[in-house]
Design brief:
The protein is mainly α. About 45% of the residues lie in helices and about 10% in strands. The two termini are about 15 Å apart. Keywords: Phosphoprotein.
Length: about 100
């Protein structure tokens, strides 16, 4: 993923586990999107996403895209959860009157 994004001249911040992802997302840098591996060690991507979205931080409203380095039944369940979360996020954005962001 990092190579694909770099080819599009996009900067990436890569972390090794969910705890680092949480610390990074709760820092000062505002990201346009967060790609979250659902199977990260220490704190999994599902829990890391919940923590980022449920606390006041610079990336609370940043879209988080669920990803996995493997394919199995657990991944399917986590993807279903991610889709539900994305729908809730979109509904919250619509209720708040937030203008849609233009993607590059």
């Amino acid at each position: 993923m990092e190579i694909l994004l770099a080819r599009q001249h996009m900067q990436c911040v890569v972390v090794r586990n969910g705890a680092e992802a949480i610390r990074c997302a709760m820092g000062r840098t505002v990201f346009r999107a967060i790609f979250m591996d659902v199977g990260m060690p220490i704190v999994d991507g599902d829990e890391a996403t919940r923590m980022i979205k449920s606390t006041f931080n610079a990336n609370r409203d940043t879209p988080i895209i669920a990803m996995a380095a493997y394919d199995d039944e657990a991944t399917d369940i986590l993807y279903d959860k991610a889709i539900v979360q994305a729908h809730h996020w979109a509904a919250d954005q619509a209720r708040s009157g937030a203008a849609p962001q233009q993607e590059v």
